[in-house]
Amino acid sequence: MIEQAILEITAELSHAKNIVIVPHKGPDGDAMGSSLGLMHFLKDKGHSVDVIAPNDYPKFLKWLPGNDDVIIYEKDKTKAENMINQADLVFALDFNHLNRSGDMQEILTASQAVFIMIDHHREPSDFANYTYSDAQMSSTCEMVYHFIDKLRAVEKITPEIATCLYAGIMTDTGSFRFSATSAETHRVIAQLIDKGAVNHDIHNKIFDTFNENRLQLLGTALQNLRVKPEFKTAFISLSQEELDRHNFQKGDTEGFVNYGLSLEGVIFAVIFIENKQEEIIKISFRSKGDFNVNEFARAHFEGGGHNNAAGGKSDLSLENTLVKFNSILPDYKELQQ
Ligand code: 5GP
Ligand code: MN
Question: How far is 188 from 220, CA to CA, in rounded Å?
Answer without folding.
Answer: 38
